[in-house]
Amino acid sequence: MMSMRFFRKICFVATLLLFALPMVAATIDGGGKIEKKVWQDSDPSKENYFNNRRALVGPGCTINSIGDGVKVVSGTANLQNLCNDDLDDYATIPALANVTVVGNPIISVKDNQHCYAGGTEAGFVICAKSEASILTLDLAKFYKIQFLKDGKAVGELQKISTGNTVTGLGLSLLTILGSDQVNKLYMATAPGNFDEIKLVQCGVDVQLGTAINIKYAFVGKAREYTITNNKENGIAKYAQEQGRKNITLDCDGVSHLVSKKENVIDEDLTNSFDINALNLVLVQLGSRPIKVIAKPSDNQEAFPANTEVGFKYASSALLNLKLGDGIRLTFFNKEGTEIGHKVISTTVLGLGLIKKSTEAELVMKAPWDFSAVKMSVEGLNAGLTGTNKVYYAFVRMAPDAASHHCPINATSSRDVSGSVNQFQLQHNDTVQVKWSIVDRPTGSNVELNTETGLVSNLDIPGKYVFKATVLKDEGRSEKCYEETTLNYAPKYVAEEHGVNILVNKEGEEPKYMLSDKFGGGLIQIFDRMMNCSAILTTSLNDFAYREPGVEVAANKGLVGIKTADGSNFADGLNGNARAFNGKMKVGFVVSAKATGLDADVLKLYNIKLYNKGKEVTGDVTTHWDAISAGLIGKEETRKMCLNVEVPAGSVFDEIVLYNTDVLSADLSQLNIYYAYVADADADNATINPVYGAQVVSTDNTNASIDFANTQMVQVANIGNGYNELSNLIDDSMDTYLTLPLGVDLGGSTISVNMGKVVDKGQQLVMVTQNLALGLGASLGEGLKLTTYLDDEKQEELTSWKVLGADVIGSKGDSYAVLNPTKSFDQVRITPVKALSALENLQIKGFALRTDMNDDGTINGDDLLVLDEDKTLAVTKSYTGAKMLLHRTFTKSADNNKKGWNSIILPVDMTAAQVKEAFGEGVQMAEFDRLDNNWIKFSTVNVAADGVVLHKNTPYIIYPTKEPLGNYSYTIDGVTKILDGHVYVANGINYDDQTSNLTHTVNGGGMTYTGSYSNPTTVSADSYMFSKGDLIHTIKSHDVKAYRCWLKEDMHTGKMLMFSINGNGIDGTTGIHVIEENKQNTNTGIYNLGGVCMNTNNVDKLPKGVYVVNNKVVVKK
Fold first, then answer.
1. What is the DSSP letter of 717?
2. Which of 636, 655, 679 corresponds to the end of one domain?
3. What is the pTM of this model?
4. How far apart are CA 472 and CA 315, in angstroms?
5. Which InterPro entries would you find in this protein's record (predicted)?
């Protein structure tokens, strides 16, 4: 299974308070840093031993600081080269002209995944052109190294040296074949455990030039071997430690009695081979070359590419060589064929010479696999006099990368709605991968296209784990891979996480009831609150609200809830077996307009607790906490909760939300959704705003700082402006990067590679420390975030939703949330405007969170909204969606019960879905025909199998279920509210029906028409349903969407009557046909021919059918 880390943090109430929990992994204990193992290279018998130098490159390493944090040095270039996998490119760091006595930091590199033991060597590889004056300097006079661990200095500044090699000499310059650059290593020994090294400039010299080039930082000793038969460090040791079979040695050169060529490969490292030219007999011109040959028995080349190979030699005449001469190294493969050569200049050779002993070493990096190397002095009759000899050849293994990971960028783990059965896994197109299934729920028949990553037939809720493995990962025994976990059809059960939602479950005896008129004591419940019963229903999207335009006097209870049997709320109600034994948080989830809602307004509301009618007093602390990332509609209504922290052992059976002062009529509306009791000490969504969210970090998602697109500018008076960059991508939300805001930043940008492809539907959360913007401020005014996918710009996002931990006190962390609408794998943060509230903004990191509804279902893709106030415009397809139907059904004018209403829907519905939406006793009928004077409908069997309500078919319906008074929902990160009657059904399928918004049924000279348009104009002389009756119109009318009407194909002038299954006129339908606007003029009694009777008493008339007060009645 994929290793995922999540953070836990004690703070105030959560986003998507009680339900928004992605189910992809466990939570890290404590929420701090995960302690890294300490690696050492001094004792192979001890744990965490590494046997070769490590280059601090790869996704686990990053530049952690640039400059001194106060002044960013201008002129830095190619910073991305410092920690990438290419050890031959470099970053340019300007030298400082003004240096303090204590030194000025230049740059630091941190290993985010490993820690190293004190006593370990570490340093930087500097490169320059061979003629550069910087190579002649003793940089130890000008630079020192500072070791750090977790951002804190380890010991004092350490002097740098060139170190020692297998030759016993100081490290020489390394020549790069095919380049005019040479490398020089500078290192120091760590005084204690460390995970970061910093280069510090401590002096100034004109020969330092304007800049230095740094290839990479490193830790540990290089693994070195002599190409000799020496038992301690020779070829046998090389073969053993590198996992090779036996390798034998040979050499090629011209021996003489005094100097034998075999001296360069024997066990003795002190003897040598004389390379002076023959002066007596011109057997050869120039120096005597020497070739060292390794013969592997495994049919592979002896030494891999990028191995550094060199010779230890002594020369008293080297500096007498002519300009342009030097020493040539020629490389051969195992067949003896030359594969390349390079001349090391006399300049470089001179710099590597130890003047007192005339001993030196020359080193070159081989770009090929090779098995033999020859050393020869360039120049005709080179004039080598005095001592000129070669001791032996040696190899130094290329450093290992401290971390390696192919940029697969697989889809980040996430929750997937149960409304879909397919999911497209994504990855970086430049990396070829093969997908495979690692794990699936028992019994699942899920299918996977291993090439495209298309997942099909998602069927059983649970965790599905998929692996993307790189097809080509050269030179590595284990190929890179990434895993993606899809948590299909998740459901968050609040009670399992220490939270009781105080609602009555359908089909069970009510456990809660609304507080009565006088509340729990002297406080009186305000009687102008609307839809109060909504807070007791399992629909957590419906709400109670104050009647608009009404003022509320001080100390009025707005709404209250109490246990039906008087039991203690803390005793574990609503089916939860566990009681609250410790501290509790008791509160209401509400929403209010964000703009203009300051702390003084929030203080107008509070909560009282009662037991048996008496107020429960004690040490209770009140908090207003932001809980929802979304804004509701154009008015930017924000979900929050008002809660009180209740001491352990408190007993209370009633909770009342009240106002502490006068609520003026024009004060922002407060919508109240539901009440809850939560365990204040448990780690759950009520106390942790990002509980269950996935931290974007090196370990979790392979995140890294993208320095190629990070732009640094000089910033004054920012104490740690560009220090601790790695805090953006570590596992901890206790560390932070201070982003210099509130000043002229001139295009400063910090770019973060997410390491994963983040899909639409996942929210990006930026965790900041104490972001005191207030509810009305806009973070987007000062900070822009741009997303990219495969380096292509996706979208600019400024609509941050700031979730204050405590929006009055602003004492804890804040959570700025964005809802991207396009997939991305990189984000770039750019200040766009100076805001005083954003000065020195401390960013702790990023997290990914699934966008969930309050009821634990996933937002967005599975929500089909049909609103009578809007013309149908939904073009996408849905499978198994939740349908929200906003449709106002009128009541019967006679008995105030639900009457018959017209309806047409663009979806098919089964009997179960019809009953779910409109009630168990729902009735439906469909148009049959016009038969003589009768408009005939026939009932639909709503208990039948299969579809009972067909899409695009006009019906009449008699609903029995009370609709939700309101419904809040979130799509694409924006929370909206359906005001008015809302009916809900699940498992709905839908395909685009917008091409035809009007549908008809014909029969017997009459047409029944339904429309999805708002408004739709219905012409005069039509028959429309209203208040349970059928109105014959005398003028045109505009109607809302999802309504139907009847009209004769040819006007007959007849008085029509209505029947269902033959029942009409005082039958069971209760539907009368009424002439519009004739109630006041037609006061008499008429027969169907329109003749006025001579009496107003029906009892005095003979049997027949008459029109009385515009209604058809039958005299029997």
1. S
2. 679
3. 0.71
4. 47
5. EF_Hand_1_Ca_BS
